[in-house]
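B., you asked whether I could sanity-check this one before it goes into the benchmark set. Here's the sequence:
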Amino acid sequence: MDWKELGKKLVGLGAPVVGGALGGPAGAAVGAAIGAALGTDVDPDAIDMAVGKDPAATVATINGLEEAVPGIVYEHMGRALETVAATQWREMTAHSALQRNWRPLWGIGANVVWFSTGIALVAAIVVAIVSGDVAALSAVASALSSLAWFYTAPLAVVGVVAWGRTAEKTAVLGRDKGPGLVEAIAGRIAGAGG
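And here's what the prediction gave me:
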């Protein structure tokens, strides 16, 4: 049994808040609180055995943890975010060029593959039209719809990376990125008019 299975069982027995939290990302942390409250090992099987011995009493004890669950989940998620932030900081300040630049390299790679596939598809369409092969045109149309799903995740990553790259680098360098295009134009106009 794992935390998610135990959570489903507890929801069925009348502990929806705590049981639901067991199925989430902080399941092990919530499981530790349940194990401590019941005096069992922090193990889904041990807690399941305790519930099996006296379901009403153990569910009542588990429901007593409802108020603590949001704090447990918040603390767990906070630690997870700190870990992600520390990882990103190490990447941005790393001495290894690959570690520092894996996101732009991902973008370059995804764009090269995307562009190459586009060239191949255009070539396939031209060849199919010139040869009059309707089956080939149908195959290209089918490939296009399949490739749309194939490219969704990598190109989404590229978009997010491109969107935040400048802010990320300027934050690491501690530099003000200066005025944007509109602010620079407005500043020039204001300076010329005064």
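One thing to flag: The first helix runs from residue 3 to 13. Otherwise nothing jumped out at me.
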